[in-house]
Amino acid sequence: MTNLSYRMLYIGGAPAGLLGLEELFDALYTADLDPNHEELPAQIIRGVRQHNFIPKPAVADYQDVLTREYQKYYRDRSGGKAVVARDYGHWQGFPREQIPWFPVVSADLCDGCGKCIEVCPKEVFEMNEDGKVEVVEPFLCIVGCCFCKGACDPKAILMPDRSLLDTFTHGQRPGT
Ligand code: SF4
Ligand code: SF4
Predict the structure, then answer these.
(1) Backbone φ, ψ for residue 49 (5° rounding)
(2) What is the domain partition of the chain in residue ranges?
(3) pLDDT digit string (tens) for 16-48?
(4) Backbone angles phi, psi at 42, to 5 degrees
(5) Does domain 95-166 have CATH number 3.40.640.10?
(6) CA–CA dist 12, 65 (Å, integer)
């Protein structure tokens, strides 16, 4: 059996685990597919569907996020940067991707002040073309941190309740 890469992305407001994304991007890059080609989003969706289930109502969200990811991949690789699957590490013995601790930003409330980006020690946020902040790397968020929420005057940032972390203790959930 082939070992496919595994990567978590934040799509449509929820984490999604995807198999074979690095292999797909490598194949598209090797075929010299321009990151702005109009057929790219459809091609990515076809490729991702070979190893993953994408619910129909979520296709547009997947297209947006995966096209942006391929554009980053293309930029990095064309610039000679080594492209490797990201390792988010572990927390209390669990792979970081299994801990649902990260901010959620309300686009309606965000005024684009950028304070969250200033206070965050990681590269969790990015400002989008609409002048709103988006969460682009949820699993870089430090488990237990809440800095950005406190810095956001319009209260556009939600963080999970700390009690969520009580269910993850030293590699074993209570009751398991
Ligand atoms: S601090 Fe709040 S309002 Fe300011 S950019 Fe971040 S999310 Fe938006
Ligand atoms: S909680 Fe902390 S680490 Fe996580 S996004 Fe906010 S400032 Fe960054």
Answers:
(1) -65, -15
(2) 6-78, 95-166
(3) 888 899 899 999 999 998 999 999 999 999 999
(4) -65, -40
(5) no
(6) 9
Give the separation between CA 123 and CA 16, rounded to whole angstroms.
19
Burial of residue 66 (number of CB atoms within 10 Å: 0-12, 13-18, 19+): buried
Q: With 0.85 as the threshold, say if the pTM is over it.
A: no
Q: Which atom of ligand 1 is nearest to the CA of 151?
A: 1
Structure tokens at 36: 């702005």
- For residue range 70-103, list pLDDT tens digits in order: 998 999 899 887 666 677 888 888 888 888 899 9
Pocket test for ligand 1, best of 117, 118, 124, 157 (most atoms within 8 A of CB): 157
131 pLDDT higher than 60: yes
Ligand 1 centroid to Cα of residue 166, in Å, is 28
The residue length of the chain stands at 176
Q: How far is the CA of 30 from the centre of ligand 1 (A)?
A: 38
Distance 171 CA to ligand 1 centre (A): 34
156 within ligand 1 shell (Cβ under 6 A):
yes
Cα(90) to centroid(ligand 2), Å: 17
